[in-house]
Amino acid sequence: MTVRRQTEVGVAVEPAWIAVDWGTSNLRLWGLDPTGAVLFAGESDQGMARLSRESYPAVLAGLVAEHVAADGPMIDVMICGMAGARQGWTEAPYLPVPADLDHLASHAVHPPLAGSRLRPRILPGLCQTGAGDEDVMRGEETQLLGLAARHPGFSGLVCMPGTHCKWAQLDGRRVVRFTSAMTGEVFEVLRQHSVLRHSLNGDDDPALRAQGLDEGLALGLTSPDKLLGRLFKVRAASLVSERPAAWCAGFLSGLLVGSEVGSQRADLGHDEIPLIGGAQLSHIYARALAMVGARSRRVDAADAVLAGLAAARQSRS
Amino acid sequence: MTVRRQTEVGVAVEPAWIAVDWGTSNLRLWGLDPTGAVLFAGESDQGMARLSRESYPAVLAGLVAEHVAADGPMIDVMICGMAGARQGWTEAPYLPVPADLDHLASHAVHPPLAGSRLRPRILPGLCQTGAGDEDVMRGEETQLLGLAARHPGFSGLVCMPGTHCKWAQLDGRRVVRFTSAMTGEVFEVLRQHSVLRHSLNGDDDPALRAQGLDEGLALGLTSPDKLLGRLFKVRAASLVSERPAAWCAGFLSGLLVGSEVGSQRADLGHDEIPLIGGAQLSHIYARALAMVGARSRRVDAADAVLAGLAAARQSRS
User: Which candidate, A216, A240, A101, A229, places its Cα nearest to that of B227?
Assistant: First the structure.
């Protein structure tokens, strides 16, 4: 993703449209020219969890104020993520899987924004129904559309590392099914609130952390069923074997990701698995996948969401 | 356990010895006559986590003050649990497994208590060494000694449900090996701090909770390797299938205990498995074990710890 700065061209270029990934705890926003080049980018901690329904228009207007004049043609604002949740701006009801990602745009909701040039469109998330198999996503479906738009021939398993890592089965532009693994959030609540916190606070040491990570990954991959009986090893290893905090943090992370990837083993196949996510977490998943002989390649999450919002804008009626 | 009240005999009967289970967040204490009958019992929230090293003597003295006169013969106070941790009263270094439980008493530490009739003895916990296999317990070893004292012929797997559920392989009075599963603590941190909390707060309904529990147990027992990919079902089931909070709480509890018990399946065997723990949690483990065809019987945790402290007192030199 390249950001073309306004100052480079000397005059303020208005965006042709605006892309927003509005998550639970923060949001990212981009202004794009007609060719898809990024004119400006912004971030904010005004995620869904902090906002009342009424505060969305002002947050959006504030973030684009310096880039959009008071008068002029309407500007599409393509939004994905938690802004479309029931407790968000305007609910965009889930599309059930199997779902055609080309239908995201036609199921978008249009929150009213009186007296503004901005024309917001919130894309729906996906849900999976059926007792014992329920699941939901909001935001990742747009990344999947972005992946499908960039790689039209791709079909297969996609892994999306994050707080709740999604594993989706994609068939062209169709999402067949998916699962959310709470791995990232489990790591965080254990790190902050469990007895393991006593073993995880201390100086970082990249080499020790990497060593702990590999040992945790190996153990998790070998026997993902034993996770609950292995978590306490983090504490015990520091008490009994005096493992330092950096090793323990790597070990816990490896144990969790290893258990998650290990449980997917039967579905991994031989095709390269796209990893859509941040660099650090994607690296851990790539390592886990490599340890069981699976190939992967990283796709930047922001690139994917931008490509998905652009594809949705193009496919809107 | 029967508590004989002092007022029944009309005069204050002094205890022959005092038993204390001093845990992380609270402690339980009993005064016993020479036959082992309980004269009085007490509880307190003055667990290890709240206490400085210096405050133990006053807490102990305060709890027995009305039962012990200023003058008289020395009174043994047999203590197990976190009072013997490094951050407790006086560290009682772990005995490594395989460990003979008859050696607990001879490895007890004797914190000084000047000018008092109380003679405290803190029993050590057990540790397991070896990279990747580390584990520790403090308190449960005394329950195991109690079980061994009450059932001299028993050998086999013992399950001790709790915040950290211990699974120990007992061979007479010898602990061969053990594992701690963080199941109870994982439930608590997820319930209080994760996104699942939004689905777990609401009216209780025992029938719905029992239904959720059984569905969670079945799923956990069938595929314990898929735990991380199943936790989010709690949230998704309330969003997509409008499952009420009571069902979700039962389902989460069942999923976790089912995954834990499912991972032990190869070791369950055909013998009756003692469950040493509280009534409610032991019931859930008993149900999980029954669902995979294993037999169990409940042993009250307080009875076991009292029997263990009594056995340790008898075996002290």
Answer: A229
Q: Please give the pLDDT value at position B153.
A: 87
Decide if B228 and A259 are in contact by the 8 Å CB cutoff.
yes
Q: Which of A1-5, A155-159, A187-191 has the lowest mean pLDDT?
A: A1-5
A95: which 2 tokens? Answer: 């599309």
Burial class for B56, CB neighbours closer than 10 Å (0-12, 13-18, 19+)? buried
Residue B95: inside a domain: yes
User: What residues in A contact B127, CB-CB < 8 Å?
Assistant: 236, 239-240
Residue range(s) defining the domain that contains residue A74: 6-138
Is residue B153 within 8 A of residue B135, CB to CB? The reply is no
pTM of the shown model: 0.92
Q: Give the span between the Cα atoms of A251 and A75, in whole angstroms.
A: 48
Contacts of B235 in chain A (CB under 8 A): 136
Grade residue A10 by pLDDT with cuts at 50, 70 and 90.
very low
- The number of domains in chain B is 2
Q: Are residues B183 and B73 in the same domain?
A: no
For chain B, give the DSSP string: --B--HHHHSSPPPPSEEEEEE-SS-EEEEEE-TTS-EEEEEEES--GGG--GGGHHHHHHHHHGGGS-SSSS-EEEEEEEGGGSTTSSS--PPEESSEEGGGTGGG-B----TT-SEEEEEPP-EEE-STT--EEESSHHHHHHHHHHHSTT-EEEEEE-SSSEEEEEEETTEEEEEEEE-HHHHHHHHHHHSTTHHHH-S---HHHHHHHHHHHHHHHHH-GGGHHHHTTHHHHHHHHS---HHHHHHHHHHHHHHHHHHHTGGG--SSPEEEEE-HHHHHHHHHHHHHTT--EEEEEHHHHHHHHHHHHHHH--
The C-alpha of A233 sits at a distance from chain B's nearest C-alpha, in angstroms, of 6
- Inter-residue contact B145 to B106 (CB < 8 Å): no
- Interface size A-B, in CB pairs within 8 Å, comes to 154
On whether residue B131 sits in a domain, the answer given is no
What pLDDT, on a 0 to 100 scale, did the predictor assign at position B317? 47
pLDDT tens-place string over residues B157-196: 999 999 999 999 999 999 999 999 999 999 999 999 999 9
- pLDDT at residue A42 above 60? yes
Give B241's contacts in chain A (Cβ within 8 Å): 129, 131, 134
Q: Using the predicted structure, report yes or no on whether residue A290 has a pLDDT greater than 90.
A: yes
User: Do A207 and A260 fall into the same domain?
Assistant: yes
**CA count, 13 A, side-chain hemisphere, B202:** 19
Residue A1 domain-assigned (yes or no) = no
pLDDT per residue as tens digits for the range B271-316: 999 999 999 999 999 999 999 999 999 999 999 999 999 999 998 6
Q: Is the pLDDT of residue B41 over 60?
A: yes
Q: Are B249 and B285 part of one and the same domain?
A: yes
> With 80 as the cut, is the pLDDT of residue B89 above it?
yes
* Length of chain A as a residue count: 317
